[in-house]
Amino acid sequence: MSPDTERALDKLRARLDSEVRAPATPRQGPGVWWPNLLGQGRMWMKLALAAQFGVIFALSWELVQTGRTGFEYRTLSSASMPARVVGSLVVVFDPNATQREVARILHRSGVRVVDGPTASNGYVLAVVDSGPQAALAKLRAEPAVLLAEPLEAHPTP
Question: Is it true that domain 87-151 has CATH number 3.40.50.720?
């Protein structure tokens, strides 16, 4: 190496050594705060993740505890029927009858829908309030009812 190169290399080494030993001073300008925020942000990120996990755990626990809330899914044929079923009927409503009209007829007759509509647009009804004959007479008296017949269980031989 030539003496100029040696001298330039020595100056560079001395300069590099002085910068490594000197404490870093905060720089001014846009974007300089970001590294500092990252250092502090790790703690906030951990706290935010812990809070998020806590919320997810609480919501999952509430979802699993359905028996406690009383909002259980029940089918129409379950034990949640309000009264004892005393008979079954099949009924076909006029296709032009409104939902409100059908609901009024069912309520007035003391029956509940337990199945339907069938392929022939019929509904199976459970008689819960009155006898099957009284419910059948009330259904047949409605103009929106095209067919109302009792369903009888046939004894097995």
Answer: no
